[in-house]
């Protein structure tokens, strides 16, 4: 995936952490952010250690991640939106190169973006995905709790996905990748991304660079102390850059909306 522009330009080009199913390249526009979808310098997750992780395919091709929150509903990123009939959710996935006995492939029944999602700066980058039949819970498939409060700066969290594993070029992993990383303060996040940051976003990662989510991890979880605190959203045009941590949708701001949608649909 091509990641254009320089961090210190007056208008920073950012990248959604998304995988395009038909091409590894998409253009970034100078006043827009772009999606992200993979983990740079993470490690192989232990099989079954992230049982809420969801893997979406779009028309049969690699797409976004998500987090299972109950038997019918998944939280993902709004920039991952596609019509329900084009999406299949894979639960219990680990190695994407062959069929294991742990997967549950379930057709998506409904996709609901946040009504105030703004694609120009990725504010309110969150959506809910309803499954056409309930997930069956086991050691490899189980939900993650919604946050009971917002996580503090310095809290260590876990992000995961099958996205790009290198900042230059494209190398997708076979197995689910994990990365432990701390939440960065809102003040530091706003200072880093003054043109894009909103109170509905949070930064997590390492200011020295080297480790980050990347293209292909979009929509995936940022899990902190067993709660879903973040959704992988966007980041700099070159993943794992110095002074440019990944940005996540701040899930604690959306509990009421999530509960309303999942109760009424």
Automatic annotation (TrEMBL):
Q: Report a single Gene Ontology molecular function.
A: serine-type endopeptidase activity
Q: Which residues form a coiled coil?
A: none
Extent of the signal sequence: 1-21
Alphabetical UniProt keywords: Disulfide bond, Hydrolase, Protease, Serine protease, Signal
Q: Which residues form the Peptidase S1 domain?
A: 39-263
Annotated Gene Ontology cellular component terms: extracellular space
Listed SMART domains: Tryp_SPc
Q: Which GO terms describe its biological process?
A: proteolysis
PANTHER family per record = TRYPSIN-3-LIKE (PTHR24264:SF68), TRYPSIN-RELATED (PTHR24264)
What is the name listed in the Swiss-Prot or TrEMBL entry for this protein?
Peptidase S1 domain-containing protein
- What's the source species for this entry? Pleurodeles waltl (Iberian ribbed newt)
């Amino acid at each position: 995936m091509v990641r254009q522009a320089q961090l210190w330009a007056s208008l920073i080009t950012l990248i959604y952490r998304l995988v395009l199913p038909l091409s590894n390249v998409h253009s970034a526009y100078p006043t827009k952010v772009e999606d992200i979808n993979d983990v740079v310098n993470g490690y192989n997750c232990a099989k079954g250690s992230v049982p809420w992780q969801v893997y979406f395919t779009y028309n049969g091709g690699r797409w976004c991640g998500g987090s299972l929150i109950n038997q019918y509903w998944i939280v993902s990123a709004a920039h991952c939106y596609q019509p329900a009939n084009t999406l299949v959710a894979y639960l219990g996935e680990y190695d994407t190169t062959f069929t294991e006995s742990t997967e549950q492939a379930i057709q998506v029944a409904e996709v609901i973006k946040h009504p105030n999602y703004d694609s120009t700066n990725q504010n309110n980058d969150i959506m809910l995905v309803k499954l056409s039949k309930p997930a069956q819970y086991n050691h490899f498939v189980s939900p993650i709790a919604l946050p009971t409060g917002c996580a503090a700066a310095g809290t260590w969290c876990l992000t995961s996905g099958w996205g790009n594993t290198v900042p230059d070029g494209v190398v997708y992993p076979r197995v689910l990748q994990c990365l432990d990383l701390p939440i960065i303060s809102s003040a530091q996040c706003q200072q880093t991304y003054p043109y894009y940051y909103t109170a509905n976003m949070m930064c997590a990662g390492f200011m020295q660079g080297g480790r980050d989510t990347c293209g292909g991890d979009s929509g995936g979880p940022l899990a902190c102390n067993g709660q879903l605190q973040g959704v992988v959203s966007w980041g700099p045009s070159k993943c794992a850059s110095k002074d440019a941590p990944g940005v996540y949708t701040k899930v604690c701001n959306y509990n009421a909306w999530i509960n309303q949608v999942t109760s009424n649909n």
